[in-house]
Amino acid sequence: MSCVHPSAFRGLAVRSTPFCLACTVALAAAAGLLLAAPRSRAEDALASTQALVHANALSTAFRTAAEIATPSVVVVRSAVKAKPARDRRPGGQRGNPLEGTPFEHMFPDGLPEGLEFNGPEGWMPRRSGTGSGVIVAADGLVITNNHVVEGADEVVVELSDGREFKAAEIKTDPDSDLAVVRLKDARGLPVAKLGDSDKLSIGDWVIAIGNPFDLETTVSAGIISGKGRELGSIRRAQFLQTDAAINPGNSGGPLVNLSGEVIGINTAIASSSGGYQGIGFAIPVNLAKWVTGQLIDKGEVERAFIGVQMGPLDRRMAEKLGVGDREGVLVNDVVPDSPAAVAGVQPLDVITGFDGKPIDGPRALQEVVERSELGRPHSLTVLREGKPVTLKVNVKPLPGDLAQDLPRRESPQDASGATFYSKEFGIEVRDKAAVAEDVYPDHEGVLVDRVDADGLAAETGIGPGMLVRKVDRTPVKTIAEFAAAIERQTSDAGVMLQIRTPSGNSVRLLKKD
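Request: output the structure for the sequence above.
Response:
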C-alpha cells in the first residue's frame, strides 16, 4: 500500500491522513542530518574565541586573587634548642626524644629503629621545621597552626619581601590547632583580607598559598570539595575540604577565594603516603577569627557549654523519635546541675536549633554553643516525643576537666541472683549487684548479664556489664520494673534503652529492620 505525503496536495482540501512508519523515519533522519550538519569555519572561530575569553577570565581571576593575598603570606620557621636527652623511663625504656617538639606528631613512637641523632652523648641536637602563616594585623600579628609552633624555643617569620622578624609572643589553642604569633618590632606589614567562610558553597573555586617542601610562595588551585568535615585528632573544629594541593609546609597558610579573601587556614591532608592525594583540610576563617580573638584578648580560649552528652541520629532512631528528616542531635544524658539541666533539657530530647540556627549534628551544636555569649539566655529548640519545645538556657564556661574522658574501670563480674530474659530482644538482666557499685556508684538500673549473639541487643553493641537505666522514657531500678517496661514493647516498633557504661551514657534502639 502506497503512502502519499500531504505536501503533494497544497491548495487542495484533503482529509488528514496519518504518516506511515517509513515516512516518519525518513523525516526524522532528514531532521537529524540538518542538525548534524557541520558548522561553518566562522562558527568554529567564534566558539573558539568565546572559550578562550572564558579561560582567560578565569586565569585572570586566579592571578588577581594570588596577587592580593600573597604579600601577607609568610614562612614560619620554628626551632627547638639542643637540650639534655630525657631520662630513661621505668623499665629501661627511653622516652620519645621528640616529645614536646613540633615533630612529635610526625614520630609519635619516637625515632624509627636505626635512626640516631649525631650529637654529644646524652644530648638532643637543635631541630627545626617550616610551616606557613598569614598576617592579619599591620603591627605584626600572624595566624598559623598550633602544630607549626608548638614546643618551639624560637620562631622566626619571613615575609614575601625577604624581611625577617622574631616572635615576641606565641599563644596557642591545641583543641582547634590554631596559634597567633606576635612579631617583634613590626609595623606597616601587608595585611590579608579576611572573608566569610559561612558563605562558601561546595564547588566554589579556591587557591591555597604556602611554602610546601620549602618552596616559598607556592599557589595551587582547586574547589571546595566538602564542608563540616571532622578530624579525630582535632576535637573542636569542623573543616573545609578542598582538592587544592596541600602538602607538608602548607600548614598555617591561607585558603583564598577568587576575591583574594582568606576563607580558611590550611591544616591537614588525608594521605596514605604522607603527600598530597587530592584531599586537604582547612579551618574555616570564621572559627579562626573567633579563636584568635580569644587568644589575643584573654590569652586562652574560653568556650561555653550547656552540659549534654550527645549522639547522632540514624534513620531508625529518628523514626522512633518522630524526627522525619534526621536533622538534630540526640540527648543521651544531661549533666546534673548543668545549664541544660536547669533549662529543663531531658534525655531523648532531640536538639534541632540554637538561637534560631538549625543544628544538623553533634559537632554543629558544639561549635555554635562554644562560641555563644556568656551571661545571657539563649534559645534552645528541642523535639520531645515528636513535638517542638523551646527552652531558655544560660551557657557557662566549659570546665577544663569536662571534656576529658571519664575514667574507665573494669566491668563488673557476674553476680548470683535472679535474672529476667527477653527472648524478643535477646537480652538478659539482673538486679544491680553490689559488685557494680564501684563502677556505677551514682546510677540506678539493671545490669546486663548476657546477650544473644544473634539478637537485637548484640547488634546495637550492648554487652554484659552495661547498666540499663531506662526502657524508652521509663526508669528501671529492678528486674521486675525492667520486665514490666520491656514487655509492653515489640521488636517491630522498636524499643530504646538508655545505657550506662564506665565511659559514659548512650541510647540504643533495638528494632527489627
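The first helix runs from residue 21 to 35.
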